[in-house]
Amino acid sequence: MSFSDYLALTKPKITPLLLMAALGSAVVAARGLPPLLTLAGVLVGGALASSGALALNSYLEMGMDAKMKRTMGRPLPAGRIVQPSHALMLGLGLLAAGIVVAALTLDFFATFFIALGAFVYVPVYTLFLKPRTSWNIVLGGFAGSCAALAGWYAVTYSSAEVGWLLGALVFVWTPSHFWSLAVITEEDYSAVNVPMLPSVVGPVAASRYIVFNTLLLIPVSLAYVFYFRGPGFFVYLAAALVFDLLLLGTNIKLFRDPTKDNAWLAFKFSSPYLAIIFLVAMVAAVLR
Q1: Is 83 exposed, middle or buried (0-12, 13-18, 19+ CB in 10 A)?
Q2: What's the pLDDT score for residue 2?
Q3: Most buried among 2, 28, 153, 155, by the most CB within 10 A?
């Protein structure tokens, strides 16, 4: 047992992407850097709350993780943390700390969306949706949308439709990203009776859903381009089109040849896609 094992409970590769969505939404809303206290509340409160929710997910799924090749080496199923209650306490403590930080530094709606994201991810997605329906990741994707909504409402209530479009971007991106991974690990999900889409319909049909979902993602990623002004409009439009087409290209390659190698390519490209789009949106907002 070590600090790295407890850190692994929080799935630290996921939180930075959520923070990028929150930060990107806040910068777009402010058309520049938001006030320092707001920025700290969004990043610190969001990081603590999301890490807590992810640690709770690790605790709740430790039995499932022990049966899956991809996850059996995690700290809880591998026995490196011998008292699972430590993971439960860590998750609850981080989540509570995140909500307290948000409540002290942000307005009601920003705090509400930080808390709502954790609620959707833990009881709604982890406990209810994931073991019951192949729509699990589609509906559970709203947990990520809450990060973008928290960033927006931390800065302003005006032009709320843009904030919701940023939230929709995360929502629609999520299935293409996770279904690509699930094509690689479909045997694992079948072994634990989790109805992740590729394990239910097979990789061939799942690849069609991935392409269709990305075709929905592209117009969402372009829908708020008119919020930007001057050079920011052209910077965002050009960059979004390039990365949209590259993502679609990896998905079409998977559709034409639904192998694990092509699924890995689609997954690896979709991983930075969201961060890049939010980064470009921040640049475009500053350049208006």
Answers
A1: exposed
A2: 81
A3: 28
DSSP label of 92: H
Count how many Cα atoms sit within 13 Å of the Cα of residue 174 in the half-sphere of its side chain: 24
Number of domains in the chain: 1
Q: What is the pLDDT of residue 272?
A: 95
Q: In which domain, by residue range, is 56 found?
A: 3-286
For the record, the structure tokens of 284 come out as: 């475009």
| Per-residue CA distances from 238 to 104, 200, 218, 284 (Å) | 39, 37, 13, 11
Q: List the structure tokens of 50.
A: 């999301």
CATH number for the domain including 163?
Answer: 1.10.600
Residue numbers in the chain where pLDDT is lower than 70: 1
CB within 8 Å of 249: residues ≥ 6 apart: none
Nearest to 281 by CA among 190, 191, 152: 152
Structure pTM? 0.95
C-alpha 162/C-alpha 168 separation (Å) is 10
